[in-house]
Amino acid sequence: MKNEWFASWFDTPYYHTLYKNRDEKEARQFVINLVEHLELDKPNHILDLACGRGRHSVTLNELGYNVLGVDLSAESIASASKNKSNTLNFSVHDMRTVIEGEQFGAIFNLFTSFGYFDETNDNERVLNSVHSMLASQGILVIDFMNANRVINNLVETEIKTINNITFNISRRYDGKHIFKDIKFRDCNESFHYTERVQALKKIDFEQLLSDCDFEILRTFGDFNLSEYNANSSDRLIIIARKK
């Protein structure tokens, strides 16, 4: 299998440097808002799918849930595993495949961790795997960018200096994907990585989820769970249930 962009970029220390200033307080409150809305029984087995370094997993666990966080990045899982306990575990895993022997009451896929793949049928592979791992009437939460707003407000160029590294960032949209080119130098060496995410819109998720036997219960437009507006919302947050 060829090396997919996310497999290399997410496993570098530079990825975590570039995104080190993410709002941890906001992420924590988002998870609290979701849990209050969903009213999931405790304890319940929850999968944090594409968990990164586990910030959402940790909050879910603190709220009383038995959590497994998985991610393709071994570096991220090594970092997340520092928080392991009897009710919080982490593992390297490809979201397109089923975790054998596990079943979950809910699966969370947060912070635009979907639509990374070259082949669109990989989206169905992810959702079919999720469907297999969910218990009867299990809940899937997808938190994705609002592609409409991103496309309409695309910041074409940007420069960020973090930890004495200057990141030159450019963005583009080709009608199907949103690209982010990231160029920088460190230790007298030049680096270039490209993020590529499918510009999936609400109608695309509606079709995908229907095809994979899910029912959409609610959609929200931000981390405070406000109503979704295609033009102005920051996020597209989908709550779906396994049929």
Describe the structure in your own words.
The protein is α/β, with parallel strands linked by helices and 243 residues long. It has a domain of 168 residues: 3-Layer(aba) Sandwich (Rossmann fold). The strands form two sheets. The protein has a seven-stranded mixed β-sheet with strand order 3-2-1-4-5-11-10, sandwiched between helices. It is globular and about 55 Å long.
Structure summarized in a few sentences:
The chain has 243 residues and is an alpha/beta fold. The chain contains eight helices and eleven strands.
Radius of gyration from the CA trace?
18 Å
Protein structure class: alpha/beta
Indicate the CATH class of the domain at 21-145 and 200-242.
Answer: Alpha Beta
Instruction: Look up the CATH topology of the domain at 21-145 and 200-242.
Output: Rossmann fold
Mean pLDDT: 95
Which short descriptors sum up this protein?
single chain, 243 residues, alpha/beta, Rossmann fold, seven-stranded mixed beta sheet, four-stranded antiparallel beta sheet, 8 helices, 11 strands, 29% helix, globular
Topology:
Blueprint: H1 5-9, H2 13-18, H3 24-38, E1 45-49, H4 55-62, E2 66-71, H5 74-80, E3 88-92, E4 104-109, H6 121-133, E5 134-145, H7 147-152, E6 157-162, E7 165-173, E8 177-186, E9 189-198, H8 202-211, E10 214-220, E11 235-242
Helix pairs in contact: 3-4
